[in-house]
Amino acid sequence: MPESLPARVLVTGGAGFIGSHVCEALLAEGVEVRVLDAVLPAAWGDRRPDEQLGVEVVRGDVRDAEAVRKALAGVGAVLHEAAMVGLGVDLADLPAYAGINDLGTAVVLAEMARAQVHRLVLASSMVVYGEGRWLCSEHADVRPAPRRVEDLDAGRFEPRCPTCSRALRWALVEETAALDPRSVYAATKVAQEHLASSWQRGTGGSVVALRYHNVYGPRMPRDTPYSGVAAIFRSALERGEAPRVFEDGAQQRDFVHVRDVAAANVAALAHGEAGFTAVNVCSGEPRTVGDVAAALARASGGPAPVVTGEYRLGDVRHVVASPARAEQVLGFRASVPFAEGVEEFASAPLR
Q1: What does each of the 351 residues of the chain score in pLDDT, given as a tens digit?
Q2: What is the DSSP track for 35-69?
Q3: What is the C-alpha to C-alpha distance for residues 215 and 20, in angstroms, rounded to an integer?
Q4: What is the pTM of this model?
Q5: Is residue 23 within 8 Å of residue 55, measured between CB atoms?
Q6: What secondary structure letter does DSSP report for 305?
Q7: Class of residue 176 by CB neighbours under 10 A (exposed 0-12, middle 13-18, buried 19+)
Q8: Residues 6 or more apart from 176 whose CB is under 8 A from it?
Q9: Residue 164, Cβ neighbours under 10 Å: how many?
C-alpha cells in the first residue's frame, strides 16, 4: 500500500453503484474499508452487502449522527459517496435531496471534526457548472440565461448570447468556472462543496471535491428516473425497446467509466494536502447523448434510438470539461476507451 494512503477509510454510500467500485479499488491498494450505507431494499432485497463487497458494512443513514459516529471509529479518511442523484421526478423530491445530500453531508462533517478525521474526498458533480462554458464571437465568455419553456417547445435547444442573441460555441469547462446550479440536485451538490470548504477552513483538513461527469458502467441502477441516461438507454434495450433520446440528441457530455472514477478516488485520497481542491473527473472525449444511445444499440444488437424532441427543464445543453487539472494535481487520467466501455456496459449486470 502506498504510504500516502491511510490504512483504514470510511466510504459512505459504499454499497451503491460508484461506491462499490471505489471499495474495490481501495481494497486492491491494500486499504481496509468500512462502509456506511442505508442498504435500501429496492437496491439490495434480501442480499447482504457485506458478503457481496467483502468489507464491514455499518447499516445507517448519513443523517443519523450516531450511525456516522460508529462508522468513523478508527478511520483515517472519508470518501463521501452517499447521495440522492439525478434530476428527480418533480419538486416533491426537494426535501429528500436537501436532506440526504446537504443535511447528511453536514452530519458527516460535524462528526469528522468530532473524531479528528481530517481527510475528505467528496463526490461532487459536473452539474455544479450549470450550462457549460460558452463563447460568443462578439462578447467572448458569456453565461446563457436559463432555458425557456417556449424555446424548448419550439425545438430551439441551443442557447444564444444573452447580450446580442448570436449563436454560441461551447468550450471546455475548467474548475475555476463560476458555479451556476440549474436544478435541485445541482443546488445540493454546490451546497455540499460549500459545506466541505467551510469544514476545511475550520479544521485545516484536506478536501478533494471530485466533479464527476456522466458516469457509466456495471452495477448502474436500472429502470429508475433517477438513473443516468446510459442506464436508461440500456434498460430500454434490455426490454427490446428503442432508446428514447431527448431534444435532438446533440447534447454534448463526457461519459467516464466507473472504474476510472474509482481510480480518481484513490488518487484523490493519496493527495492528502491541506486545503480545498475541486477536480473534474472526465474522460476528455466528449460524446453526444445520441452517440451514446446509438453505440449501446449497436453493441447490444437492439433497435436504433428514436429522437423524441422531449426535454427536461432542469437539463443543460452542453457540459464538457477539461481533464487537465486532474492530471496535474492528482496524476489521474481516464484510461477506459469509450468503445471498450460501451461494449462491456451493453451486457454488464445492472442493479
Answers
A1: 566 899 999 999 999 999 999 999 999 999 999 999 998 765 555 566 666 778 899 999 999 999 999 999 999 999 999 999 877 767 888 999 999 999 999 999 999 999 999 999 999 999 999 888 999 999 999 999 888 999 999 999 999 999 999 999 999 999 999 999 988 999 999 999 999 999 999 999 999 999 999 999 999 887 666 668 888 999 999 999 999 999 999 999 999 999 999 999 999 999 989 999 999 999 988 999 999 999 999 999 999 999 999 998 878 899 899 999 999 999 999 999 999 999 999 988 887
A2: EEE---HHHHTT--HHHHHTSEEEE--TT-HHHHH
A3: 13
A4: 0.92
A5: yes
A6: P
A7: exposed
A8: none
A9: 11
How distant, in Å, are the alpha carbons of 32, 138, 208 from that of 7?
6, 54, 18
| Residues β-bridged to residue 141 | 135
| Single-letter code of the amino acid located at 284 | G
